[in-house]
């Protein structure tokens, strides 16, 4: 019995032990299954992350390709080092370039030998703005190279031309330029070096752009060596309208007046200064032109008479940092959002500048440098109630059948100054014409707003002649900027050019 009982106990212990081990095994199996499930979830998360990353990269690539096709491709193809232009030229006859009023400014003539020749009917008149295609591509020819070498002809006709080995007709480019106004500006500038720019204030359309000295794009190949050798003295290849940097002279007093009004909104009307023809500011002597004594002046008369001493007095009161911010809002020291080649206008005054630099800067001398285009933008912004429009020269492109392929719409660069401030400055600029240095423009049948300038640029006191302004003052249609190099006063040399342009564009 004892032996039997011992055996049963062993069996029960053995059974109990086996059952215990079996329970542990089950628990282990369950834990293994959960662990496997967790590992699976973690693995799925990793796969999802990779999937999302791939999708994002794919979408970025699609976005880049779309942006490239819509925006960047033309810039890449227009690059002078891109050989695709030459390939396109073998298949497409370069399209024509027209003025806004339908005059042909550039065209391609195919000779009996099958060779294409680019022809510019107006010779020198549009050379800088329209540009050329030989000896480096410039102007509209460069900006619109891809559209001019792209044909939106009938697909069947293009296919037939391909089989026959003939070229298809490239698209035509219509500019914003007024051919008659351009010719008047070109003729009025005469033999002087300088530049003329005309803008439509509420759109930014470039109506005219003249630079002298100039060259003939029809003969540029033959003239190239002479043009390059003469570059240091005359710089005929340089577009002074957008790349010429000049001291702005008294035209910059418009900017100084705006800053003074902004800093003294409730008291600028009470400003008063007695001009004696010369004054000293912390040891820095400022003379008015010819040391003319202007007498008692308010802010409006100070601008109308272009009193240097009065504006030096104003400058001593200004917040320099605030003034710099205003000038940079007007795009000094900034990249212009334009298609054509240009130089940045410079405003270098800051809180570290001494009194001598300050009083020179506020009257348009000192280190400040400006392009005629930038000065035209300032005038146009005031004319447009304080809103700056981005200048542009291409209106639209058409195929050979006259169907519009692409249009370019006006683009705002934002509200630079409030409308009421622009209205005050306009009032002051009208006084420049009514009873100031621009008086010869007062004989026109409509009101003109403007500012003259004489910018000294050498130790002998030689001056560039300036004028900026717009007309009609009540409903501006045209804003102009004119600089005549080394000529003298703006009233004597720049204002007559403005008068001819206003007459051409608006009538007497």
Write the topology of this structure.
Layout: H1 2-78, H2 84-91, E1 92-93, E2 97-98, E3 104-110, E4 116-119, H3 127-130, H4 139-143, H5 145-148, H6 155-164, E5 168-169, E6 172-175, H7 179-189, E7 194-199, E8 206-212, H8 220-229, H9 240-243, H10 253-263, E9 273-275, E10 278-281, E11 284-287, E12 295-297, H11 299-304, H12 308-317, H13 320-329, H14 355-362, H15 372-383, E13 387-389, E14 394-398, E15 404-407, E16 412-415, H16 419-435, E17 449-456, E18 463-471, E19 478-484, H17 490-493, H18 495-506
Parallel strand pairs: 1-5, 2-6
Antiparallel strand pairs: 2-3, 3-4, 6-14, 7-8, 7-19, 9-12, 10-11, 13-16, 14-15, 17-18, 18-19
Helix pairs in contact: 7-18, 10-12, 10-16, 12-14
Structural class category: alpha+beta
Looking at the overall shape, the CATH architecture of the largest domain is 3-Layer(aba) Sandwich
CATH domain class of the largest domain: Alpha Beta
- Tell me roughly what share of residues is in helical segments: 40-55%
**Percent of sequence in beta strands:** 15-25%
Q: What separation lies between the terminal Cα atoms?
A: 143 Å
How much is the average pLDDT?
89
Spatial strand order of the main sheet: 4-3-2-6-14-15
How many discrete domains? 2
Largest sheet: 6 strands, mixed
Commentary on this structure:
The chain has 508 residues and is α+β, with helices and mostly antiparallel strands. The protein has two domains: 78 residues; 327 residues, DD-peptidase/beta-lactamase superfamily (Beta-lactamase, 3-Layer(aba) Sandwich). Helix content is 44%, strand content 17%. It has 18 helices and 19 strands. The N and C termini lie far apart (143 Å).
């Amino acid at each position: 019995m004892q032996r039997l009982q011992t055996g049963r106990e062993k069996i029960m212990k053995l059974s109990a032990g086996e059952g215990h081990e079996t329970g542990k095994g089950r628990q282990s199996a369950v834990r293994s299954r959960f662990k496997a499930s967790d590992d699976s979830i973690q693995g799925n998360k990793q796969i999802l992350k990779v999937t999302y990353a791939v999708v994002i990269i794919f979408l970025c690539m699609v976005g880049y390709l779309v942006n490239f096709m819509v925006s960047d491709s033309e810039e890449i193809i227009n690059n002078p080092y891109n050989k695709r232009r030459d390939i396109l030229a073998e298949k497409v006859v370069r399209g024509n370039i027209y003025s806004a009023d339908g005059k042909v400014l550039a065209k391609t003539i195919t000779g009996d030998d099958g060779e294409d020749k680019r022809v510019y009917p107006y010779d020198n008149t549009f050379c800088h703005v329209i540009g050329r295609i030989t000896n480096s591509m410039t102007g509209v020819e460069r900006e619109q190279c891809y559209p001019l070498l792209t044909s939106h002809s009938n697909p069947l006709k293009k296919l037939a031309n391909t089989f026959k080995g003939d070229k298809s007709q490239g698209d035509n480019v219509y500019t914003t330029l007024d051919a008659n106004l351009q010719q008047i500006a070109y003729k009025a500038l005469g033999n002087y070096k300088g530049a003329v720019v005309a803008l439509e204030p509420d759109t930014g359309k470039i109506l005219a752009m003249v630079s002298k000295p100039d060259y003939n794009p029809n003969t540029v190949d033959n003239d190239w060596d002479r043009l390059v050798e003469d570059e240091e003295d005359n710089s005929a290849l340089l577009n002074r309208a957008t790349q010429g940097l000049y001291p702005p002279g008294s035209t910059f007093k418009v900017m100084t007046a705006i800053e003074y009004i902004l800093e003294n909104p409730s008291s600028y009307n009470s400003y008063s200064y007695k001009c004696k023809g010369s004054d000293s500011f912390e040891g820095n002597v400022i003379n008015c032109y010819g040391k003319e004594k202007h007498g008692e002046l308010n802010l409006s008369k100070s601008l109308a008479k272009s009193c240097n001493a009065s504006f030096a007095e104003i400058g001593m009161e200004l917040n320099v940092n605030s003034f710099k911010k205003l000038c940079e809002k007007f795009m000094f020291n900034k990249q212009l959002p334009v298609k054509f080649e240009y130089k940045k206008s410079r405003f270098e005054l800051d809180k570290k500048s001494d009194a001598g630099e300050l009083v020179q800067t506020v009257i348009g001398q000192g280190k400040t440098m400006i392009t005629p285009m930038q000065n035209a933008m300032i005038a146009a912004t005031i004319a447009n109630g304080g809103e700056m429009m981005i200048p542009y020269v291409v209106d639209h492109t058409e195929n050979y059948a006259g169907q519009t392929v692409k249009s370019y719409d006006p683009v705002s660069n934002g509200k630079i100054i409030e409308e009421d401030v622009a209205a005050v400055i306009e009032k002051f600029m009208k006084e420049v014409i009514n009873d100031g240095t621009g008086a010869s423009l007062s004989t026109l049948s409509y009101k003109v707003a403007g500012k003259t300038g004489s910018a000294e640029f050498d130790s002998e006191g030689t001056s560039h002649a300036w004028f900026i302004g717009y007309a009609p003052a009540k409903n501006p249609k045209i804003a102009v900027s004119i600089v005549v190099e080394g000529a003298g006063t703006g009233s004597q040399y720049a204002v007559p050019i403005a008068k001819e342009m206003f007459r051409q564009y608006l009538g007497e």
